[in-house]
Amino acid sequence: MILSVKNLSVTYGTKKAVDNISFSIRPGEVIGLLGANGAGKSSRIAAVLGIETSNYEELIMLGKSPIIHRKEVFQEVGVQFQETNFQDKLTVREACEQWESLYKQTADVPLLLETFGLVRKESQLVKSLSGGERQRLAVLLALISNPKLVFLDELTTGLDTRARRMLWRQLLIMKENGLAIVLTSHYMDEVEALCNEILILKEGKTVFHGTIQEAIRTSGKATLEDAYLNFADEEDWV
Known about the structure:
Order of helices and strands: EEEHEHEHHHEHEHEEHH
Number of helices: 9
Strand content: 15-25%
Largest sheet: 6 strands, mixed
Number of strands: 9
Radius of gyration: 18 Å
């Protein structure tokens, strides 16, 4: 098991942002966290990563506690946050070198740059990249440690269709090679392309956990998008 979470909760004052959630992931699996803004997706990721204080029955990542054994665990875990901020005067090459210096072992960076279409951007300042290019760089940096597990928060927000499909294709190859992924997304086509299982969140609680086919069947709807809207009680808004 790559990641096991049991009965994890995050509380802000009197409000439970994450309410007793549980899920697990094995090598080569992708689990999608779905929900409206404010449903608890980012809070859940932050809690699992140990960035947010939480209570839990079990939190095991790569066989260890990500709280107690942080340095060791995060040598093999990558993270791409929804908003990744870079230093203003950093070039793409310098950003890669900076991230490489954090790890004992790294992936083939020239190959990653080629894979993500950034070879010709190496000497360019990160701040001058397009939004889509910065997003691709953020994902590249999350993969630079050749991780066994990666967290991707709103993976393709702001990307055009071609760039989105390119990212999916590369992640599917990595998934076949054993990479485990925790993904948050608002795009149902992305979820269908990548995910083995999904969790649908509402007000910090898990209202569905299972496969895409199970979500469609249980909801009585014809598509994943309609099933999601049904579970998340968002149908009245469409």
